[in-house]
Amino acid sequence: MSDTPLIPQKSPIKVAVEAGKTYHWCACGASAKQPFCDGSHKGSAFTPLAYTADTTGDKWFCACKHSGTKPLCDGTHKRL
């Protein structure tokens, strides 16, 4: 795996999150459980990013892996 993450898709993934629950966002782009980690990064320089929801509701997680507000989408996928 290179130092550049894979791009599973160029649009965010909507996830219903629960306040206080921690989610592990895939940083490498290789996970089959996007946008979350399934351990595919093992043996690479990537590590998942822990995200603890502050409120219950829908969040848009980055799937292009290039957001400036990781793990949430900031629209960067529109420029890729």
Automatic annotation (TrEMBL):
InterPro entries for this protein: CISD, FeS-contain_CDGSH-typ, MitoNEET_CISD
GO cellular component entries: cytoplasm
Domain of life: Bacteria
Sample GO molecular function, one term: 2 iron, 2 sulfur cluster binding
Pfam families: zf-CDGSH
Residue ranges of every copy of the Iron-binding zinc finger CDGSH type domain listed in the record: 10-47, 48-79
Keyword flag Metal-binding: yes
Keywords, sorted A to Z: 2Fe-2S, Iron, Iron-sulfur, Metal-binding
PANTHER family, per the entry: CDGSH IRON SULFUR DOMAIN PROTEIN HOMOLOG, CDGSH IRON-SULFUR DOMAIN-CONTAINING PROTEIN 3, MITOCHONDRIAL
Entry protein name: Iron-binding zinc finger CDGSH type domain-containing protein
Species assigned in the record: Mesoterricola sediminis
Organismal lineage: Bacteria, Pseudomonadati, Acidobacteriota, Holophagae, Holophagales
